[in-house]
Amino acid sequence: MIRMIVGLITGGISGTLAGKIMDSEGGLLRNVILGIVGGIVGSFLLGLFGISGSGIIGNVIVSVIGACVLIWGGKRLTGR
Question: In Å, what is the CA distance from 67 to each residue of 8, 29, 49, 51, 75?
Answer without folding.
Answer: 14, 14, 18, 17, 12
